[in-house]
Amino acid sequence: LADWQGALKDYDKAITLWGGKASTSTDYGKNEEFDISKFDGINPYVLTFRGNVLSRLGDYEKALRDYDVSSNIFISLRDIARYSDARANYALALYQLKREDEAVKAMNDVIRKNPGYADMHVAIAADAWSRGNYVEALKEWRFTCDRIDVGCEAYKDDEWVSTVRRWPATLSSKLQQFLRREIPEALKGKPGDRLAPVTKYQ
What pTM does this model have? Predict the structure, then answer.
């Protein structure tokens, strides 16, 4: 924890040197409207990195703002790849805060701009399965497995999803449920029921 707090101070200091008007993590008002002019000259990579630190510290509301700002800057620079990274983290932070509908909207925003972004296709699949949208879940999963170069293999490893990709526990659990083809909790008749047999795509 101390190391992450130290990293946060370092990023705050670095961002202050760029001279934005809302330059440190303590400057954020929860309900402020986004104003990109407050961040003129600030390196969006550093904002993304600080968002990651804030997420590690469990301060997801402030992490959301950093991811939002950095993704907006990246898209203004037409850097779709880095926009996708920042916006994907934004979506996952929303999911962590139980704002699932907003999270799924952000996920869809990413894949509209960057159709080959596997992480968000798989996240949409996990969420869709949990809502009983089985066709959409399988479609997103199969697209990732068959049509995207990185494929879906890494997402079968729950430890990688949870610790490397740092998905929220609720979303990771939904992915595991999807991979086992279990009926979602809210729709289950009894523990262990399956909706469909496991296919080659698992």
Answer: 0.85
